[in-house]
Amino acid sequence: MSGYDPIVQKLKEARFHLSKLEDLVSMDEFYPNANAFLTAAHSVLLVARHELGWTDRKSEQQLGFTDQQILDRKSFDSWYKNSDGAKCLNAHPLFSDRDVVIHRTGQAGFMHTSISFGGVAIEPGNAFAPSLVWRKGRISLPLEDKNLFFYVDRTGSKFLASEYCKAYLQQIEEFVGELRKYPWR
């Protein structure tokens, strides 16, 4: 494919949103960027399946392909179904969290803990509520919006959000690299 490559464009978009996440401490900035990252990262696989595959296309979209193009697309579908990289990405918590963001709660499994002087965060916050802080023997909301962001997986384990997202994006980049080894690229 020469020129514009929608798979690479979605990958660039995911990188852009990840780069914005890495230094954010404000709740108001983090959550929208996290959602944008999840959507762009998730889209890399969806766009690959649409651009290169056969079964995800509607019948009217399947018209006009040569026999060889149809074989190539079906070959891609077979590869994708058996690809360890695709299986790993489809099973990744951030892949399914995109559906949570878009279709359910409006926020993935991210949480934040306030970085405040003079107090200790006792209850983490999320996109809809700030964290609670124990300050001078009283529970209060943090005075300033400086936070550490975490991703909490299905087991309850906490990971620094930017590092977890970075590892997820690296898996996506490896998947795109794998795509380039085959004739449909």
Task: Give a verbal description of the structure.
With 185 residues, the chain is of the alpha+beta class. The protein has 6 helices and 6 strands. It has a 3-stranded antiparallel beta sheet. Strands 2-3-4 form a 3-stranded antiparallel beta sheet, with no helix packed on it. A hairpin with a 2-residue loop joins strand 3 and strand 4. Helix 1 runs antiparallel to helix 2 and helix 2 runs parallel beside helix 6. The chain is elongated, with a radius of gyration of 20 Å. The model has no long low-confidence stretch (mean pLDDT 83).
Order of strands across the widest beta sheet? 1-5-6
Strand content: 5-15%
Helix content: 40-55%
Q: Output the number of helix runs.
A: 6
Assembly level: single chain
Helix and strand composition category? alpha+beta
